[in-house]
Design goal:
This protein has 307 residues and is mostly beta strands. The chain has a domain of 207 residues: Neuraminidase. The chain contains 1 helix and 27 strands. The mean pLDDT is 94.
Length: 307
């Protein structure tokens, strides 16, 4: 007999919030003009990622800033530049990589704060506006080229930058492709399609492409799914940018838990960390806060980084 189960509710608490000294009150930002109807935005943080020493890095999209948060929850401004950093991940070789909407795929030196362009476009053309990235264990970089795509313009792209420098376009019919997550075996790539309010499942073929792409799960709301992370049990944590939730989906697509924001409605990105990687850290961008929740399974261990 089939038995329905009610998704568990997991509570959060505020881990830390951007200090007042770093908030740009009443400041104009082209990003806010395009994405927040011109409203004043003092910050909009995303891209949480832990380095080998346990520091948490986040980006501040409208003001081109990268912050490092120590284990003692002290904030340090690492870099400030002309751009719109969306995603951030730390490569196994220690490089800090940034998905920047304006400039492309960037590399940050955390010691000097210097930024350089790793990949600014494809075949002589600029990207639509890249949004997020994920790094495979072998160093391949997957990233989404979202731009302003949506149901009206379903031409967002998903790329893979191979370690040998070859750039593969895996998909060019995305409906606002955003966050990405690989499964444990790295044979399936999950992509949040924000304006489709769904997560797509992309099997990766042995020939280097993808086939039989389908919707893994569907959601609702004024915005849609954003950043994602996978745990060791194969469950996919999906941040939703308008519902104040992170949804936890089982490997078969069943919703098994809801992680509730205690701060605001704009849950954008997630990263596993803390003791034994059993805590989920969530950027709640409306309030400029990072939330934390205790999870039932540890997140997948990231490729080992040098210290």
């Amino acid at each position: 007999m089939y038995l329905e189960s009610t998704p568990a509710v997991i509570e959060t608490q505020v881990y830390t919030a951007m200090p007042e000294r770093f908030r740009k009150k009443d400041s104009f930002s082209p990003w806010a003009s395009a994405n927040k109807s011109g409203q004043a935005v003092d910050c909009f943080i995303e891209g949480p990622s832990f380095d080998a020493a346990g520091n948490l890095y986040v980006v501040d999209i409208p003001y081109g800033r990268i912050f490092r948060i120590s284990a003692q929850r002290e904030w340090t401004l690492v870099a400030e530049y002309e751009g719109q950093p969306n995603g951030l991940k730390i490569h196994p070789d220690g490089r800090i990589l940034i998905a920047d909407y304006v400039n492309g795929l960037l590399e940050l030196d955390p010691q000097s704060g210097r930024i350089k362009v790793l990949l600014g476009g494809r075949n002589g053309e600029s990207f639509k506006g890249i949004n997020d990235l994920n790094i495979a264990s072998n160093g391949d970089i997957y990233f989404t080229d979202q731009g302003q795509t949506g149901l009206h313009d379903p031409n967002g792209r998903v790329y893979r930058l191979n370690t040998d420098g070859r750039l593969d376009c895996l998909l060019d019919t995305g409906i606002s492709p955003n966050g990405l997550a690989l499964d444990r075996n790295e044979t399936v790539l999950y992509v949040a399609m924000t304006r489709d309010n769904a997560v797509w499942r992309m099997p990766l073929t042995s020939q280097g492409g993808t086939a039989k792409v389908g919707r893994f799960c569907s959601m609702f709301g004024a915005s849609g799914p954003d950043g994602m992370a996978m745990d060791e049990a194969g469950n996919l944590a999906v941040a939703h940018a308008s519902l104040g939730q992170v949804f936890l989906f089982a490997p078969n697509g069943e919703l098994i838990a809801r992680v509730k924001s205690c701060a605001g409605p704009t849950c954008t990105n997630v990263a596993y960390g803390g003791k034994d990687r059993c805590q989920l850290f969530i950027t709640e961008s409306h309030s400029g806060s990072i939330l934390v929740a205790d999870m039932p399974h540890p997140g997948i261990a990231q490729p080992r980084q040098r210290t």
